[in-house]
Amino acid sequence: MGFLDVILGRSKPVRPDLDQLFALPSAAVTLRAGAGFVPTGLGSVCFASVEGGAFDRIRRDVGELLDADTERGGAPVEFSRDSYGYTWLLARRPVDDTAALVNDLHAVNTLLQEGGFGPQLLCSLMGFRDEGRRPLALVYLYKRGTFYPFAPVAGGGGADVAGKRDNELELQVRALLADDLRIEEDLGRWFPVWGAPGL
């Protein structure tokens, strides 16, 4: 960091640490024991949209990377775009194979980063549910290297109740996972990911 950065109050951005994702399996064990939430087998990666040939190349590369696992069966990953124009890649694994899902998320993030798309990466998430079918996601902020819980309030059909989240549950999960994950301290950065694939 230079002298002008100090004077002008600019800080050096945190270098992404994708290996933080490997803490998710132990966090899942803690979450099950402490709050009754179990993995859904779904996880996703979100990044700013990439157009044309670059997007086609990403789709092909990710498919080839995850297709290498022949036990998976079916589509290795689903691509979608949300209403804000962000691209989501949804990965599926058996609910009892959290480590394999984390490996997939790490591999996709690494592939995008090494392909020059690191600046477009926003977040990754892993979905959970409790016995009452309440949804919960552990969200990894790529540019911060931190996690936060996101708990939308589900309606009768399982869909998110527009704009409502269970703040009490999020704070409970934060306290529960403080020793397992690098939790984002700035609550203002606990962005809602309404309707995110994998949630």
TrEMBL record:
Any Pfam family hit: PspAB
InterPro entries: PspAB-like (IPR054383)
Tree of life domain: Bacteria
Name by which UniProt lists this protein: Uncharacterized protein
UniProt organism field: Streptomyces luteoverticillatus (Streptoverticillium luteoverticillatus)
